Amino acid sequence: MTDTPFDAGTEFDRQLYRLVELGYPALAELSEDTFRDLVTPLRAAAVEGAAGLPAPTDARVPFLLVTTRELIPVPPRLEITTLAGKRKPGFLDRNFPLDDLPTFHPIKELEVPAGPAYLLFDVDRGEEFRNLPPVTALEEMTGQGRLPLTIDEGIALITLYPAALASNRCFSLVGSRCGDKRVPALWISQGAPKLGWCWYGNPHTWLGSASARPERVGRT
Predict the structure, then answer these.
(1) How many domains are there within the chain?
(2) Residue 182, domain member (yes or no)
């Protein structure tokens, strides 16, 4: 992480262009212009919220343009993710049935804005929490004034910054839970991103827990 300033407006435009390039408008059954009109009102908030934050690195990024399952379901968004420099599409772990996905919701500590898209700031893939069970990682990140990522936010991170998911630099998404002891996580399998789950109390040497600033900013 460096102290180099960056142009948040240009970065917002890059993220939006990337989503368009990947086919998000078609997945949302919208025209490209309608899709752009839907998310462009967030640009000013991105510039304001990212003020003073450093340029992106593989481990930490100043903000994310997050799309939600209200706009596009999880599987098609996952299937257009790839590892940096690779082509194999992301996929859902066989132990994570499609019927289970809708049961995972943001934990009560998160105030996720209603609607199809919002902004998340100062996002870190959480490698400092490797080899810690998610329950411990959650305690430590909240002690730092940060909160965990959801499934939607994790997918946004590896979509817009594919290098964030790397060998021994994978991460849990403790912000999405379904009432049992499972915690969603993104890791690498067969040369591609995989969305699966691990246990709330189990540590893994290769798995951290991603976090961000508490505030999430939606359209006004």
Answers:
(1) 1
(2) yes
Burial degree of 142 (CB within 10 A; 0-12, 13-18, 19+): middle
192 within 8 A of 82, measured Cβ to Cβ: yes
Q: Which domain holds residue 62?
A: 8-218
- Which DSSP string do the residues of 8-44 spell out, in sequence order? HHHHHHHHHHHHHHTTHHHHTT--HHHHHHHHGGGHH
Both tokens of residue 167? 């060998």
H or E stretch at 155: helix 151-160
> For the segment 108-158, what is each residue's pLDDT rounded down to a tens digit?
999 999 999 999 999 999 999 999 999 999 999 999 999 999 999 999 999
* Residue 204 exposure: Cα atoms within 13 Å on the Cβ side: 20
Claim: this prediction has a pTM higher than 0.90: yes
